Amino acid sequence: MPTIQWDESMTTGVESLDAQHRQLINWLNDLLGAMSLGRGRPEVKPLLDRLGAYAALHFGTEEDCMTKYNCPVAAKNVEQHKQFVETFGSFSEEYERTGPTAHLTVRLESELMRWLTTHIRRTDTQLAECVKPRA
Ligand SMILES: [Fe+2]
Q1: Ligand 1 being an ion, which residues bring their Cβ within 5 A of it?
Q2: How far does residue 56's CA lie from ligand 1's centre (Å)?
Q3: How many angstroms separate the alpha carbon of residue 42 from the centre of ligand 1?
Q4: 61 in a structural domain
Q5: Model-level pTM?
Q6: Could you tell me if residue 43 is inside a domain?
Q7: pLDDT tens string 33-86
Q8: Cα-to-centroid distance, 38 and ligand 1 (Å)
Q9: 41 is in which domain, residue-wise?
Q10: How many domains does the chain have?
């Protein structure tokens, strides 16, 4: 089960957001780890719920921050967050029906992990330029 780790290529220039990203990545690793080990619903469901709730909270904080700094990708960021929430929601619904199947685990890994790392590196990192103090 491959896990991902936060690294400098993901920095947003805002320490509190970076800390939230590290938390999201860690919890996504935990969720996928539990699912790939074949853990049952009582163990996996709280991890899934925790990740979804934290992602929603984090997106709100980050969107406010991008607005505050007039970040040029602010609208795109909101759009991409919506996509994540939709994808995550459909995975959660599927989970309710099927439980932690191998098929679902593989897709969560490829879609959520890929989404999160790509989104942080391509979109969230653009905040770094906006928060730099202007000379
Ligand atoms: Fe974002």
Answers
A1: 62, 77, 124
A2: 11
A3: 30
A4: yes
A5: 0.92
A6: yes
A7: 999 898 888 999 999 999 999 999 999 999 999 999 999 999 999 999 999 999
A8: 30
A9: 14-128
A10: 1
